[in-house]
């Protein structure tokens, strides 16, 4: 029997290829991706930090409801996350059209902002453990030509705040304080700590890596 054949199952409640790649980077391979469809609209007066926390929790609960309807997934761990980009208390959208991305980038140009990721883990017994991680960043002042070139790249599509730090927009960042993978979409230290703290064998695959 191999190490992978007896470990508990893990569901990633996300369709994000970035979150999957981050988990795989540290040897964690989800058994299934189960994107959770939840309303991501902030409620009145909700701060960015609390929005990230609530959405991560809601996604875990939504994925659990689906998993409980399948016998092969009923005893799985469920890991979810939600990333929010904010300037002060203003939450920036996940840009889907070029006008949204342009508005985000003009606002971020030459300014500091914060990225919050809420991480939630639901255990097979239904307990929820949570972390909220904050990273502070500052962008250079963006010239018209580089802004237009970035918008033309299309890299911004579907990204919170209209940019992807792991791509071309990495050249915009003049300062970063905190977790880099948090900005990509999943703070690895916190995610691995939650899993390990609840009995998931995070390092099991490492034994076969040599």
Short description, anyone?
With 210 residues, the chain is an alpha/beta fold. It is 33% helix and 22% strand.
Account of the protein in words:
This protein has helices at residues 3-6, 17-25, 48-67, 98-108, 144-153, 180-184, 188-197, and strands at 10-12, 32-33, 77-87, 90-91, 112-122, 128-139, 173-177. The protein is of the alpha/beta class and 210 residues long. The chain has a single domain (3-208), classed as Alpha-Beta Complex (Maf protein). Strand 5 (112-122) and strand 6 form a beta hairpin.
Summed over residues and divided by their number, the pLDDT gives a mean of 93
Radius of gyration: 18 Å
- Number of E strands: 7
Q: Would you tell me the structural class of the helices and strands? A: alpha/beta
Q: Which architecture per CATH?
A: Alpha-Beta Complex
Count of separate structural domains: 1
Enter the CATH topology name. Maf protein
**Low-confidence parts lasting 5 or more residues at pLDDT below 50?**
none
Tell me the strand percentage band: 15-25%
What's the CATH class, please? Alpha Beta
Note the run of SSEs as H and E: HEHEHEEHEEHEHH
Largest β sheet strand count, sense and barrel closure: 7 strands, mixed
The number of distinct helices, counting runs of at least 4 residues, comes to 7
């Amino acid at each position: 029997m191999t190490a992978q054949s007896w470990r508990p199952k893990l569901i990633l409640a996300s369709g994000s290829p970035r979150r999957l790649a981050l988990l795989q980077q540290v040897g964690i391979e989800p058994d299934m991706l189960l994107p959770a469809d939840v309303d991501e609209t902030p409620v009145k007066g909700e701060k960015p930090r609390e929005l990230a926390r609530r959405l991560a929790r809601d996604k875990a609960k939504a994925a659990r409801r689906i998993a409980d309807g399948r016998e092969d997934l009923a005893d799985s761990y469920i890991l979810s996350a939600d990333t929010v980009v904010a300037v002060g208390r203003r939450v920036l959208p996940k840009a889907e059209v070029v006008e949204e991305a342009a508005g985000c980038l003009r606002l971020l140009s030459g300014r500091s902002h914060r990225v919050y990721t809420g991480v939630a883990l639901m255990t097979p017994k239904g307990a929820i453990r949570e972390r909220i991680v904050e990273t502070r960043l500052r962008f250079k002042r963006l010239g018209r030509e580089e802004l237009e070139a970035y918008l033309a790249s299309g890299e911004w599509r579907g990204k919170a705040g209209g940019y992807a730090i792991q791509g071309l927009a990495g050249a915009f960042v003049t300062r970063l304080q905190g977790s880099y993978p948090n900005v990509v979409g999943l703070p690895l230290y916190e995610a691995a700590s939650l899993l390990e703290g609840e009995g998931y064998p995070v390092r099991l695959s490492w034994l076969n890596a040599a």
